[in-house]
Amino acid sequence: MSGLIPMNPEGDAGRGVDNHSSETLHRIFGRNPVKSISVIFLVLLALFSAWNINALFYAGNERSRPVLLDVLPGDSFRKVVTKMYSDGLIHYPETLVFWGEILGIDTNIRSGEYGISGDMSPIRVLMDLHEGQRYFYKVTIPEGFTLNQVAKRLSSIGMASKEDILKTATDPAFVKSLGIDSTSLEGYLFPDTYFFPRMATPRDAFRMMVSRFWHDFNGSKKEKMEQEHLSVEEMVTLASIVQEETGNPKDMPYVASVFMNRLTRHMRLQSDPTVIYALNGRRRLHSRDLQIDSPYNTYKYSGLPPTPISSPGEQAIDAVLSPRETSYLYFVSDGHGGHLYAETLKEQDAHIRKLIRSQKKP
């Protein structure tokens, strides 16, 4: 027996199994298993993609009133998706996450308030989060708008009647709750473009506008205000007059300088816009209008008017906080968007005569 080669049962058995497995694979995948597996993977990928594409455009059947979704600054995309799913606002959270990452929207969503309903498709939700408050009222408040004009604009979108909006803006308790020491919100409705949900109330709108004002009124501005020995109300009032006198940012620091110099010398401001405000916005003034008995008539009464006369923009506020250092006490429009400045009344009269002569020339 010593001449025989001993058998290795385990080795032979192993080769048998390998051969059997190989044959099984060949029967399932053919003679090219790698190619077959690739085909199956592509089929599965196609099915997965098709399902996700279908789910991306799927809109629920339930028509419901939009629910307010508040997306805060810093909220992650996944956090927003999770909240919408838990509130029953979306049906396929995984689809939103998948396509949000594919389209790059997961890193580019906008904070704000959104109206989301159960009949909205995932693609519509994604686009809303990416583009901003698409289904909200867009309202632009220009620089120099008065409270009356703001109320009219908010009323035009159906938020409430103009009368009710003005009633809210002059409610002493509400005004005080916003940190404003005045009789109304005049001057504190910061000029900007706002997006309001359809269910927003005048209080919601005013809170947003005043919040924007306080956000812009940062620490450095408070320091400058104290250096100029102005209260917030005085600063806003003076800035509103500057805003109404000129829309040219380059002129604003000079106009602010004139008014600051006149206040220091206890001279009347003699500003036409304050009289226009007293006349409820009538632009064409007559000499007799300068004699009306109103605390807003700065031709008749010294100092600042009782309240701001409009909503000043950031540049007008900055001009009051950082006026040019001049000795100017007078200015007159040059007819070309700018102003001519004077230190004396004689110099001011010379400017006026020159402008009159230039207008008479053919």
Secondary structure elements and their pairing?
Layout: H1 9-29, H2 33-56, E1 67-71, H3 77-86, H4 93-103, E2 112-116, H5 122-131, E3 137-141, H6 147-156, H7 162-169, H8 172-177, E4 192-196, H9 202-216, H10 219-227, H11 232-245, H12 252-264, H13 272-278, H14 314-321, E5 330-333, E6 339-342, H15 345-360
Antiparallel strand pairs: 1-2, 3-4, 5-6
What does this structure look like?
- The chain folds into 3 domains: 67-131, Endolytic murein transglycosylase (Dna Ligase, domain 1, 2-Layer Sandwich), CATH 3.30.1490.480; 137-216, no CATH class; 219-360, no CATH class.
- It contains 15 helices and 6 strands.
- The chain has helices spanning 9-29, 33-56, 77-86, 93-103, 122-131, 147-156, 162-169, 172-177, 202-216, 219-227, 232-245, 252-264, 272-278, 314-321, 345-360, and strands at residues 67-71, 112-116, 137-141, 192-196, 330-333, 339-342.
- 50% of the residues lie in helices and 8% in strands.
- The protein is mostly helical and 362 residues long.
- It has a two-stranded antiparallel sheet with strand order 1-2. The chain has a two-stranded antiparallel ribbon with strand order 3-4.
- The chain is elongated, with a radius of gyration of 35 Å.
